[in-house]
Amino acid sequence: MGRISGVVLSLLCICIPQLLAQTPLGAFKIARLKYAGGGDWYNDPSAEVNLLRFVQQHTAIPVQPVFEAVDLSSDAIFQYPMLFLTGHGNVVFSHDEARRLRTYLLNGGFLYIDDDYGLDTAIRREMRKVFPDKEFVELPFSYGLFHCHFSFPHGTPKTHEHDGKPPQAFGIFHEGRLCVLYTYESNPSDGWADPEVHNDPPEKREEALKFGTNIVVWVLSQ
């Protein structure tokens, strides 16, 4: 097992939300999380950019609408209040990557996972490496994330059909704080991408962007 560097240990003396204040103008950024295993972690790079532009238009949150990707092996993960993981197929975390992700999450970080189709088995397996002592729990429609800015009385919106199952949102909590959000059979991040990528109707894209805005607001309000 590798040791956490002195840089990381210094960063962990500051909670992740406080790190936000150290970015230019205190601007909120999202980092795309790279992973091994063969899944396309890099797909739809316009998603975060469009979401953050929407957040900028509909809230008072200062943002930097850029696409940035990070490795779990890099200390850079501790510079972001929110990491985003998506793709199709397999995901694999090494023992050290799982340990570092756990450290990030236990110290104020937030991970949003959106199943772009086919991630479910791998995500549940790999997150057990990160939190052997925790399980995903389904979030009820009354949960605050669904109502903190825009209202979603029926929970996660369904952007794409996938297997035709109802959309679900699952969470992992630490000391009462939601630190991992996982959306399944819903795929709202596809609705964040440029319109021509998936040809989703405008109302579906707006619904997805509103849901993404709620995620950002919830990350900053916990």
Q: Helix and strand layout, with pairings?
A:
Blueprint (H helix, E strand, L loop, with lengths): L5 H6 L4 H5 L9 E4 L12 H13 L9 E3 L11 E6 L7 H12 L3 E6 L4 H11 L6 E2 L29 E7 L2 E8 L10 H4 L3 H20 L1
Parallel strand pairs: 1-2, 1-3, 3-4, 4-7
Antiparallel strand pairs: 5-6, 6-7
**How many domain modules?**
1
Strand content: 15-25%
**In order across it, which strands form the biggest sheet?**
2-1-3-4-7-6-5
Mean pLDDT: 89
User: How many DSSP-defined strands?
Assistant: 7
Which secondary-structure class do the elements indicate? alpha/beta
> Biggest sheet, in brief?
7 strands, mixed
**Shape estimate:** globular
Distance between the termini: 32 Å
